[in-house]
User: Fold this.
Amino acid sequence: MRDLIAHAASLGVTVHVAHIDTECRGFYDSVRKIVVYDFNLTPVEQRTVLAHELGHAFYDHQCHGNPKYEEAADYYAACLLIEPSEYIAAEALDPAPDAIAEELGVEPKLVHAFEKRALTRLRGVTYVGSRMGARQFRWSG
Assistant:
């Protein structure tokens, strides 16, 4: 969590923990530059929700519930919490997204976001990063 709180500070955002009476597990207030997450969350949920809300802070999203904003915040969270080499090792153990999520200590939705936007699979090999030509992927395994 310290790494995420330090990241929040680098964005000029403060992090608060509170009881939230709604169904949401956390939120970003763009006016006050704060992220709040519910104190009843598990450690994995805390990291996932905080990283997701930091995605909203990074992009300065000011509209709640916009599917494109939610997708962007999930991918941002995935990039904060998923190390490519650790992803590749977890996928080698069990390629199911739920198993990868458990191994990495994140929620499955972040694994799905990471797989959708950061991975390329060619002939049984997983590549992570942009497509820049032969042998130009950041990670492979």
Notes: Confidence is low (pLDDT under 50) at residues 136-141. The longest strand covers residues 14-18. The domain at 1-81 is CATH 1.10.10.2910 (Arc Repressor Mutant, subunit A).
